[in-house]
């Protein structure tokens, strides 16, 4: 099987995702097919070059939060090294987990760990790409495997890992930088804050498209038309440089109490009927405005980390609500047919 080629630096990651043609549809058709019960994993909407707002949001977030991200990478590396020992098999979840896995891989390598890093596909409602996992973990101890993502929203990916790995030798252990849902096995923080790469898509993820099913294969395509805007290597290098000069972040503390249910209850007050259309966390809310048809935005407060969401909501003409008791920094509602 031919895997899709990425623009990550050699040695940062092995991409275990099949290179197959993308089944592209319009946003209108995508929403109609999802509303009819079809998995989003069967099609893609075309990805356009990042807007000026996206580029500015990324740059501002890297300048404002880069040191915090670096400290959280250090904290997560400390935790993984302490819990799993000197042999680690990082399996990042494309796309948001891949740059985190790349930076973790560099940091753990500097510490002398026996560490590998591969990225593969997981699709909500479909599951984890188990043949790719078998390749990623060949000749590696099952107990060394940890899945890596950027942040959590409602915990859907955690559930997919649990379902896909039921009875499997590999445990569904998830490591993230930001875990406002309180569902990850390992996290650096439970705070919901803006990770820079949440503002962009393929251009900080090796020019890889979102993953989809092509027959029975989990697949992606390289979005070569976005090459002039690619920041993948520069982003990983910038974070890695900060990691080397930043102390570990503070321990994450206790997980939040029932944040997902609280968010769902609050969303109903703003008209949400389908829990699948409720997307809590800054990262997930940003994705709604970049890839879905948004219906409303709820913010805990207007802050520098949520200013881009307010601007996106204004551009889409959707209402913005403020709810001080929202357990996440942001929550977006997808339009319901």
UniProtKB/TrEMBL annotation:
Q: Which residues form the PELOTA RNA-binding domain?
A: 259-336
Query: Which ranges carry the Cysteine protease StiP N-terminal domain?
Result: 6-239
User: Superkingdom, according to UniProt?
Assistant: Bacteria
**The protein's name in its UniProt record:** Uncharacterized protein
Q: Which organism is it from?
A: Deinococcus maricopensis (strain DSM 21211 / LMG 22137 / NRRL B-23946 / LB-34)
